[in-house]
Amino acid sequence: VQAQVESGGGSVQAGGSLRLSCEASKYAFIHACVAWFRQAPGKEREGVANIYTDSGSTTYADSVEGRFTISQDYAKRTVYLEMNSLKPEDTARYFCAAGHDDCYKSLASADFPYWGRGTQVTVSS
């Protein structure tokens, strides 16, 4: 069962912005952590940002701190990733993932059992 559906990816020039959306199922959103991961060709999957839906508490990878913002609309069961000052190295497929146990402030993919299919982000120089 696919728990999340991502949207909002696309192509942008360096310095530009994009906003990704993740619409989650009720099970995957309530009392859960929702995180964004990314994976570029030939590279390992990297945790980017995490939000705990009950409190709104957030965590960011050092590589995106200050440029990316994760937020949520609780009524819509949707998590957003606002990406500003994009760099070519941000190019990757971005995935939304959710979990309930051991995921608080985690950016480790093993802590998230529910995944979407991803959306592509391409940043040109």
Number of continuous helical runs: 1
* Biggest sheet details: 7 strands, mixed
Strand and helix order: EEEHEEEEEEEE
Average pLDDT reading: 94
User: Total strand count, please?
Assistant: 11
Poorly predicted runs of 5 or more residues: none
Helix content range of the residues, please?
A: under 10%
Termini separation:
37 Å
Portion in strands = over 45%
Rg over CA atoms, rounded to whole Å, is: 13 Å
Shape: globular
Structural class: mainly beta
Description:
This protein has 125 residues and is mainly beta. It is built from one helix and eleven strands. It has one helix at 26-29; strands at residues 4-7, 10-13, 18-24, 33-39, 46-52, 57-60, 68-73, 78-83, 92-99, 114-115, 119-124. Strands 2, 4, 5, 6, 9, 10 and 11 form a seven-stranded mixed beta sheet that branches. A hairpin with a 4-residue loop joins strand 7 (68-73) and strand 8 (78-83). It is globular and about 40 Å long. It starts with a strand and ends with a strand.
List keywords for this structure.
125 residues; mainly beta; four-stranded antiparallel beta sheet; 1 helix; 11 strands; 3% helix
Write the layout of secondary structure elements.
Elements: E1 4-7, E2 10-13, E3 18-24, H1 26-29, E4 33-39, E5 46-52, E6 57-60, E7 68-73, E8 78-83, E9 92-99, E10 114-115, E11 119-124
